[in-house]
Design a protein that fits this description.
This protein is mainly α and about 425 residues long. About 65% of the residues lie in helices and about 0% in strands. α7 runs antiparallel to α8. The chain folds into 2 domains: about 190 residues, Clc chloride channel, CATH 1.10.3080; about 190 residues, Clc chloride channel, CATH 1.10.3080. The chain has a two-stranded antiparallel sheet.
Length: about 425
């Protein structure tokens, strides 16, 4: 008989063999140094996030004003990106995988050149209308800086790379989206499905809040939606709510699954990387221009704004954004997936709310958070990103919908290096 999924809280027990008692003073001093390093990482990463994010928004505005002059040249932009990486940056072209390897001490360092490479290549992707995100850049910037600080400070040979790289990842996410609580949990739980890297929580907290504060002071605005929705889960709303949550999980997990397999398929069809990115860029350009003149290009913030401001959302918006983002990332363009996932979730949430006559803004918000969580195979981060963006009064709904979506995502993740193994002292196991 197949066991049902259950929620368990496992706490690792100490090994039976006798161990030397920890030096509490040494541990306290090390944590203090980690926190000071987290503060430094947050300051630098917040400034870098602000520069990257503000320039990216200006590039987006420019492209939206001249779509027919820029989007046709996406293939050329892709060839430029490919040439830069192949000629000067082969050792940094794997992006997020490099951070995962550094955290696990499978890599001794991350070259600082990763920062300008991923930043400039993402700007090029968005200038010419690739459907991509931006979180990958911010997280890589922060993680690279955290790794550099760990190498220079050398606090603890065993743990410093892991702790400060994670703190940098939290700073990157928090500085870009200005959601520090979600950033802390994203950085500490995305590495291993169902586990929290608890040793990095405090430095990550300091770095994320610092980066968010710095980027805000430098002019990077936070996306927020202020609304007052009267909604209660009762006999009339329970079924639509659960159907939406399950769909969010399937869409997020499906995105991760299709992304993983499309990368493999496209690399087989186009083994030459230059031909791959040129053909993919040309296809995305043509489709993007045919479909409403670039409606699905870039971050997808236009869809997000429409979802929350009573704009036009078509029932097929989420699917077209889904597919174009998959192709853009699979062929080698840089950026990320998170903001397009926000757009996909918000667009689908709007559509399903209309079908079931539910509050549109609330269901768009639930989709915004839950699809992101399902695609990244994270549980706590999406709850808090929903609360930080839309209001903590809706936290019970974000909690419920993110749990359901997490269970129904098929255990897929957009980050191929994420592992499913109990690696730390506190493990939340919701899946077989």
């Amino acid at each position: 008989m197949k066991e049902k999924n259950i929620i368990t809280l496992d706490i690792k027990k100490a090994e039976s063999k006798p161990q030397k008692p920890p030096n509490r003073l040494k541990s306290a001093v090390q944590m203090l140094v980690y926190c000071l390093c987290g503060l430094l990482i947050g300051i630098i990463t917040g400034g870098a996030d602000a520069l990257f994010g503000i320039v990216l928004l200006k590039i987006t505005d420019f492209r939206e004003n001249y779509p027919y002059w820029l989007i046709p040249f996406l293939a050329i932009g892709g060839l430029i990106i490919c040439f830069l990486y192949e000629r000067f940056g082969k050792e940094v072209k794997n992006g997020m995988a490099i951070l995962f390897d550094r955290v696990r001490n499978e890599r001794t360092e991350i070259k600082l050149r990763l920062i300008p490479f991923v930043t400039v290549s993402t700007w090029i992707t968005h200038l010419f209308g690739g459907s991509a995100g931006r979180e990958g850049v911010a997280v890589q910037i922060g993680g690279t800086l955290g790794s550099f600080v760990a190498r220079e400070v050398r606090i603890d040979k065993k743990n410093s790379a892991k702790i400060l790289t994670i703190a940098g990842m939290a700073a990157g996410f928090g500085g870009l989206f200005r959601t520090p609580i979600a950033a802390v949990f994203f950085a500490t739980e995305v590495l291993c499905a169902g586990a929290l890297e608890v040793t990095a929580l405090l430095p990550a907290l300091i770095s994320a809040y610092t980066a968010s504060f710095v980027s805000g002071k430098l002019g990077l605005e936070k996306f927020t939606v202020i609304s007052d929705v009267d909604f209660h889960i009762d006999i009339n709303t329970f079924v639509p709510f659960c159907i939406a949550a399950v769909c969010f999980g399937i869409i997020g997990g499906g995105f991760a699954f299709v992304l993983k397999n499309s990368r493999k398929l496209i690399s087989k069809v186009f083994p030459n990387i230059y031909l791959r990115i040129a053909a993919g860029g040309a296809a995305v350009s043509i489709v993007s221009l045919i479909l409403y003149g670039g409606r699905y290009s870039g971050l997808g913030t236009n869809l997000i704004e429409s979802a929350f401001n009573n704009g036009q959302i078509y029932y097929w918006d989420f699917l077209l954004k889904f597919l174009l983002t998959i192709v853009t990332i699979s062929v080698g363009f840089q950026g990320g997936e998170v903001t397009p996932l926000f757009a996909i979730g918000a667009a689908f949430g709007t559509s399903i709310a209309i079908v079931f006559n539910m509050p549109v803004v609330l269901f768009a918000a639930l989709g915004y958070a839950a699809v992101f969580g399902a695609a990244t195979n994270t549980l706590i981060a999406p709850m808090f990103i929903g609360a930080e963006v839309f209001g903590f009064r809706y936290m019970p709904y974000f909690f419920a919908v993110c749990v359901i979506a997490y269970i129904f995502n098929g255990n897929n993740c957009i980050y191929s290096n994420q592992i499913n193994k109990q690696t730390d002292s506190i493990v939340l196991n919701l899946k077989k």
